[in-house]
Write a structure and sequence with these properties.
Layout: H1 9-25, H2 28-37, E1 45-48, H3 49-55, E2 60-69, E3 78-85, H4 87-95, E4 99-102, H5 103-109, E5 116-118
Parallel strand pairs: 1-2, 2-3, 2-5, 3-4
Helix pairs in contact: 1-2
């Protein structure tokens, strides 16, 4: 039988943590995020910085279940948590006085996912 699902050990641990927190705090966002991260790499979301700029407001916290790419620019302060960031995306978000977090950091800082939005 062929193995399905992610083979990256860090991603497997993150998915398990998300599921655990989802059940512990009754937060459906973490379960949805875990389900999205379990998808094959080709089906995971890829978001450009210009899309973050268009669909977010200042001081908003968003989570991307995939990769953030650096195409475009951003003109307001946001906090972005994602599985991966390109170097250009990190630079562009930090230039706009925003923060780039890993999903695990966001999970530790905000276990109840208050005022967190899923992008994709």
């Amino acid at each position: 039988m062929k193995r399905t699902g992610p083979t990256n050990q860090h991603l497997q641990a993150l998915i398990a943590d998300l599921k655990r927190q989802s059940y512990a705090h009754q937060v459906h966002l973490w379960r949805r995020l875990a389900d999205d991260l379990e998808m094959p790499t080709r089906q995971r979301r890829v978001i450009n910085v210009n899309k973050l700029n268009r669909f977010t407001k200042a001081n908003e916290v968003v989570v991307v279940p995939g990769k953030v790419l650096g195409t475009g620019s951003i003109n307001h302060n946001i906090t972005v948590a994602a599985w991966q960031f390109s170097e250009q995306a990190k630079a562009e978000i930090e230039r706009a006085k925003g923060k780039c977090l890993s999903i695990q950091d966001l999970l530790k800082q905000n276990p109840k996912a208050q005022k967190v939005r899923l992008m994709g």
